[in-house]
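Good morning C.,

I know you're traveling, so I'll keep this short. The sequence:
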Amino acid sequence: MRRLFLGIDVSTTGAKALLIDEKGAVVASATTPLALSTPKPLWSEQDPREWWSGTTASIRRALAEAGAGAADVATVGLTGQMHGLVLLDGAREVLRPAILWNDQRTGAQCDAIRERMGGRARLVKETGNDALTGFTAPKILWVREHEPAVYAKARLVLLPKDYVRLRLTDVAAMDKADGSGTLLFDLGRRGWSQEVLDKLEIPAEWLPPTYEGPEVTGRVTASAAAATGLREGTPVVAGGGDQAAGAVGAGAVRPGVVALTLGTSGVVFVTTDKPLVEPEGRLHAFCHAVPGKWHFMGVTLSAAGSLQWYHDTLAGTESFDALVDEAGQAPAGRRPRVPALPLRRAHALSRPAGPRVLRRPDRPASPGPPDPLGARGRGFQHARLLRPAEDGRGRRRPPGARRGGRGQERALAAHLRQRPRR
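The tokens, ready to paste straight into the viewer:
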């Protein structure tokens, strides 16, 4: 009997299943695409039930590809998109579509949170972060203000991957890395902040217990085993949000190693041994998926996703590699031909440019994206804030890119004045 480990990733674009062996070698993987809903400008939502159906389909395909049986899977780990709000009622049924990390509707609620907490400085000191539209707490306040009937039925708050955990194990739980991204966490204590909950008037009983990344949170139930092809009783560990889990995979688990990640968003990530904060909130400070570690994170919300937009809207006949190779010929730091979208999380770093309308003769006009690489330019001023955390050699480890592969890595390495890996 083989001993395999199953990783589940509930990302924005797909529900993924990955099987690895005891040496960390990939045995099989499968992805089921997920639909994204934007019912109004700046809104971004998904149906949590689709995460579960996509996850079950991906697990079954990965097991089939590997030729593995239920007994071959020793443990299941979870990761996924951070910050999304999943509201459940007392019967643990979904009350409304999940409000995602890149949803921008909660500006007024962010202002209200700062006011209730006595100002940005106190909020950052307690949680490690300023109130930003991507976080979970302002989404809860938005539902309370705009959908009071839904709010009145709410009894449980989960994050995206933890809804899948609930369906797998019938246990409500969350890892500390993802919990710290809700804006409801006491960063130093690695637990829910009673001060924040009291001041925002959010019931503490709505929030699940939190666990360190490697801790077992539950076991696969009989019904979940029937749906997925896994063995009943297989342990499920806490895991971590996508960035913390990705940093573990990239080796960014100790100070001195900085991970650069390009997915729909772009992230610069550095581990710390203590719960440090950037006083102005220009960097996120979260718990790491590694027990007893924390991390800083700089984020731009429209990174490789903007390359997808550029390709689909303006260059549909070109390959991604061709687009990135052409962009890579431009000198690092050169001003892009199209402006940046106002989707930057480090709001205090620079004033974002407004969207511009671009038109291709055979297509309708649409707002312009960030530069085609999506991460070069002002959004990665985060790297300057993180430099004190580097080791003497200034080592960074880019785990790779969603689109563009080596060409994108070369361009980013040039921008950061680093040599790409050979």
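Safe travels,
E.
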